[in-house]
Write a structure and sequence with these properties.
The structure is a single chain. The protein has 9 helices and 14 strands. It has helices at about 30-40, 55-65, 75-85, 100-105, 130-140, 165-175, 190-200, 215-220, 235-240; strands at about 10-15, 20, 25, 40-45, 75, 95, 120, 145-150, 155, 160-165, 180-185, 205-210, 225-230, 250.
Length: about 260
């Protein structure tokens, strides 16, 4: 019997809810990733979370015993920097982001301003305040281009989820009436285009694994990739039954993936 993932050359891995939850690693997930790499497959962590730099993710994975490098991490923040460098070169950006990510964008040569911006960019700003929101809304009222790094409504946290960029989008729409002109992260196509171009792979040679139907699985479906839903994070079997987004494969935990490769 043909295994569902035997022709897959690259696994794109969501992180929180897929290989760890908060500061707790999910049993068997990292061991499965090491075995996947031993079998000659590529592994890239693809996260919508734009509140951390790749270096911070490398540190977190190392603390859990998984040896990742900066090149193994591709976040919506990284994709947004690349988009600005390639398609909005020289444009002045009003950026909502925490101080660490703000400096990441500055170091990448993005012109960051607090007035007379050409575009507004909203990332997962864990230091968001009323003044930043008002400034962003004022520019959006003026018709400036409005971009967000990703659409997640909440980010997993203990003891409760916290507001994420999708919640900021809802607030901004309530004020200005506008939706973003561009959403960079999952489930949209930009990150898929970058991955396919950089690694020379066809969509059917890539599998996306994650715990969220409306970002991870929809990303795979929209972009012609194999989709793997794990039930260690946000989505339950009841959620799956109610949803019109259907993955190719459903696993109780990522450790179960090896039987399908």
């Amino acid at each position: 019997m043909k295994k569902q993932l035997e022709n897959v050359k690259m696994f794109l891995m969501d992180m929180d809810g897929t290989v760890y939850v908060g500061d707790r690693k999910i049993e068997g997930a990292f061991e499965a990733l090491c075995e996947i790499k031993r079998r000659g497959k590529q592994v890239v962590f693809l996260t919508n979370n734009s509140s951390k730099t790749p270096e911070k993710y490398v540190e977190k994975l190392a603390s859990m015993g998984y040896p990742a490098t900066r090149e193994d991490i591709f976040s919506s923040g990284e994709a947004t920097i690349r988009f600005l460098q390639e398609q909005r070169q020289g444009k002045k950006v009003l950026l909502l982001a925490n101080s660490v990510v703000y400096e990441q964008f500055r170091a990448a040569g993005i012109p960051l301003v607090t007035e007379n911006a050409d575009l507004v960019l909203v990332c997962f700003d864990t230091e968001l305040n009323y003044q930043k929101l008002t400034l962003a809304c004022n520019h959006i009222f003026e018709g400036k281009e409005y971009i967000v790094s990703h659409p997640d409504l909440v980010c997993p946290a203990n003891p409760y989820p916290v507001p994420d960029v999708g919640s900021f989008m809802a607030l901004i729409k309530a004020v200005t009436g506008r939706d973003p002109d561009l959403i960079v992260g999952k489930p949209y196509s930009l990150m898929a285009e970058y991955i396919e171009k950089d690694y020379g792979l066809r969509p059917e040679e890539i599998a996306m694994c994650g715990d969220r139907l409306y970002t991870d699985i929809k990303f795979a479906v929209n972009n012609g990739m194999k989709s793997i839903l794990v039930l260690t994070g946000e989505t339950t079997r009841e959620d799956l039954e109610r949803s019109d987004i259907k993955p190719d494969l459903v696993l109780d935990t990522f450790a179960d993936v090896l039987s399908q490769i």
